[in-house]
């Protein structure tokens, strides 16, 4: 077995293990629906002072949340539910780790925090505000106070740590060539305008769509980052710019959507010289507060903000609704272009990406209507079906790649035979998909790799053929010249 085939088999085995992981992990199988998590935060001091009444019950075993709504309680089931005692470490283990593993395998990923203002979105994504207890980077637990903060750090610092840890252990363990490059960028969408949080002068940027690269923002700064600490430093710098902007414009954090993007590029060379290059993009999204805006109380800047937030969150709701209709077999136009947020997140919602939504809610009865609306939104999002693929290219010597293609075709044929079906028609494929999803996912991964390799190999062969044609043309010209003049052109060149 070649090194490349061992890599592939290990990769496929890992994907399979992940799709059958334990109940308390939000799994990241090869394809599937948006994963939805609900997190209920503890009551705040303010809620306690105002006569706190609890209205949310969590059954973590049944993955359900019950809202004591009158006259009828309402129960919702999700992929994972976290009550107020669930720690930041638990959330990372259940939600952050599986999606980061998928990102490191080459899938585009997206983690979105949704919920009303004060429901715990920023706490979940980042941890407590560093301003409130010194400017600790959230990594090193140098003293007692820091150790407490360290424990409370949110998903973003933990994800960054994990990405770099896994990359360095792969580099250490692997005897083959492997290179990683990590880049990050940070933007916010405020009043339907995209601005660069790493470059405060870059305002009103434009979002574009590219057939190969997907969605991208023109002029957005992308920083190459060597370590988790450096990446977190970039994130903190952007978050500080967000705060400066907020004070200048007198807005609260929940008035803008922020998107921190981490891009992981990897390149692995196997013994045969075939290169495997993967690029995955990980969006970490902290949305504006989802509470309904009271237009009558808003004026000036607030009115404009309220309008923009309503527009983008209702556009998000409409996109989700259309996608759910599509997953139920209806033909629908998906209005991604109705807001900057939905256009930017086009791939993450219903496209080539794995997506986890964390719906944050307050446990207090006074917020029961907002909580119900968050839970309904989250329940709808659960029905969105994404088709994520590993974003990889293979390239190298055409002969070696030809051998690789042959090997992959054989592996595919063996898999198909294993499924008791020599040629898989569309109908059979769907049937097998239902019966044996893990085998099918192996087949679709192999098919994707074969199609990518075939494309690369064809390109390399065409290039080689063009070179051969060029050389043959030159040789022919030389013969003609010699026949006509009796001179060898290279001799005459030497004369000058
Ligand atoms: N699970 C939790 N455990 C302890 N405290 C929490 C938890 N979730 C949130 N909090 C606290 O609740 C308060 C509000 O949380 P946070 O700022 O994260 O809300 P938010 O949804 O991001 O609000 P906004 O939309 O205004 O940005 C903060 O003081 C935060 O520390």
From TrEMBL:
<dbReference type="InterPro" id="IPR036961">
    <property type="entry name" value="Kinesin_motor_dom_sf"/>
</dbReference>
<keyword id="KW-0175">Coiled coil</keyword>
<protein>
    <recommendedName>
        <fullName>Kinesin-like protein</fullName>
    </recommendedName>
</protein>
<dbReference type="GO" id="GO:0005874">
    <property type="term" value="C:microtubule"/>
</dbReference>
<keyword id="KW-0963">Cytoplasm</keyword>
<keyword id="KW-0505">Motor protein</keyword>
<keyword id="KW-0547">Nucleotide-binding</keyword>
<dbReference type="InterPro" id="IPR001752">
    <property type="entry name" value="Kinesin_motor_dom"/>
</dbReference>
<comment type="similarity">
    <text>Belongs to the TRAFAC class myosin-kinesin ATPase superfamily. Kinesin family. KIN-5/BimC subfamily.</text>
</comment>
<dbReference type="GO" id="GO:0005524">
    <property type="term" value="F:ATP binding"/>
</dbReference>
<comment type="function">
    <text>Responsible for microtubule translocation. May be important for the organization of phragmoplast-specific arrays of microtubules. Plays an essential role in stabilizing the mitotic spindle. Required during mitotic cytokinesis.</text>
</comment>
<feature type="binding site">
    <location>
        <begin position="115"/>
        <end position="122"/>
    </location>
    <ligand>
        <name>ATP</name>
    </ligand>
</feature>
<dbReference type="InterPro" id="IPR044986">
    <property type="entry name" value="KIF15/KIN-12"/>
</dbReference>
<dbReference type="InterPro" id="IPR027417">
    <property type="entry name" value="P-loop_NTPase"/>
</dbReference>
<dbReference type="Pfam" id="PF00225">
    <property type="entry name" value="Kinesin"/>
</dbReference>
<comment type="similarity">
    <text>Belongs to the TRAFAC class myosin-kinesin ATPase superfamily. Kinesin family. KIN-12 subfamily.</text>
</comment>
<keyword id="KW-0206">Cytoskeleton</keyword>
<keyword id="KW-0067">ATP-binding</keyword>
<dbReference type="GO" id="GO:0003774">
    <property type="term" value="F:cytoskeletal motor activity"/>
</dbReference>
<dbReference type="InterPro" id="IPR019821">
    <property type="entry name" value="Kinesin_motor_CS"/>
</dbReference>
<keyword id="KW-0493">Microtubule</keyword>
<dbReference type="GO" id="GO:0007010">
    <property type="term" value="P:cytoskeleton organization"/>
</dbReference>
<dbReference type="GO" id="GO:0005819">
    <property type="term" value="C:spindle"/>
</dbReference>
<feature type="domain" description="Kinesin motor">
    <location>
        <begin position="33"/>
        <end position="384"/>
    </location>
</feature>
């Amino acid at each position: 077995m070649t090194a490349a085939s061992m890599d592939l088999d290990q990769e496929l085995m890992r994907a399979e293990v992940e799709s059958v992981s334990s109940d308390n992990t939000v799994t990241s199988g090869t394809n599937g629906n948006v994963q939805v998590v609900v997190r209920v935060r503890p009551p705040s001091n303010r809620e306690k002072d105002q006569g706190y009444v609890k209205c949310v019950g969590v059954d973590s075993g049944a993955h359900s949340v019950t809202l004591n709504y009158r006259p009828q309680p309402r129960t919702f089931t999700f992929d994972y539910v976290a009550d107020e005692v669930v720690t930041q470490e638990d959330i990372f283990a259940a939600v952050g780790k599986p999606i980061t593993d998928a990102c490191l395998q080459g899938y585009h990923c997206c983690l979105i925090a949704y919920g009303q203002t004060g429901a715990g979105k920023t706490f979940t994504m980042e941890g407590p505000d560093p301003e409130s207890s010194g400017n600790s980077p959230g990594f090193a637990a140098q003293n007692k106070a820091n150790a407490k903060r360290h424990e409370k750090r949110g998903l973003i610092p933990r994800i960054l740590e994990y990405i770099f840890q896994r990359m360095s252990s792969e580099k250490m363990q692997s005897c083959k060539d492997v290179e990683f490059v990590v880049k990050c960028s940070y933007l916010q969408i405020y009043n339907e305008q995209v601005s660069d949080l790493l470059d405060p002068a870059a305002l009103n940027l434009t979002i574009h769509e590219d057939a190969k690269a997907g969605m991208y923002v023109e002029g957005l700064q992308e920083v190459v980052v060597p370590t988790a600490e450096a990446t977190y430093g970039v994130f903190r710098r952007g978050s500080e710019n967000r705060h400066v902007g907020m004070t200048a414009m007198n807005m609260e954090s929940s008035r803008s959507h922020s998107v921190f993007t981490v891009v992981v590029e990897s390149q692995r060379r196997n013994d045969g010289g075939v290169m495997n290059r993967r690029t995955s993009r990980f969006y970490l999204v902290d949305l504006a507060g989802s509470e309904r805006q009271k237009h009558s109380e808003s004026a000036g800047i607030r009115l404009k903000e309220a309008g923009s937030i309503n527009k983008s969150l209702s556009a998000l709701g409409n996109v989700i609704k259309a996608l759910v209709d599509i997953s139920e077999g209806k033909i629908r136009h998906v209005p991604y272009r109705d807001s900057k947020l939905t256009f930017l997140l086009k791939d993450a919602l219903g496209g080539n990406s794995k997506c986890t939504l964390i719906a944050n809610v307050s446990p207090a009865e006074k917020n029961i209507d907002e909580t119900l609306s968050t839970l309904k939104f989250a329940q709808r999002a659960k029905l969105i079906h994404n088709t994520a693929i590993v974003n990889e290219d293979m390239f190298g010597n055409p002969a070696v790649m030809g051998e690789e293609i042959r090997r992959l075709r054989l592996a595919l044929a063996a898999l198909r035979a294993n499924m008791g079906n020599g040629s898989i028609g569309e109908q059979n494929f769907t049937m097998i998909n239902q019966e044996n999803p893990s085998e099918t996912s192996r087949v679709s991964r192999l098919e994707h790799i074969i199609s990518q390799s075939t494309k690369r190999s064809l390109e390399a062969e065409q290039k080689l053929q063009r070179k051969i044609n060029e050389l043959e043309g030159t040789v022919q010209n030389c013969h003609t010249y010699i026949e006509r003049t009796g001179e060898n052109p290279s001799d005459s060149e030497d004369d000058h």
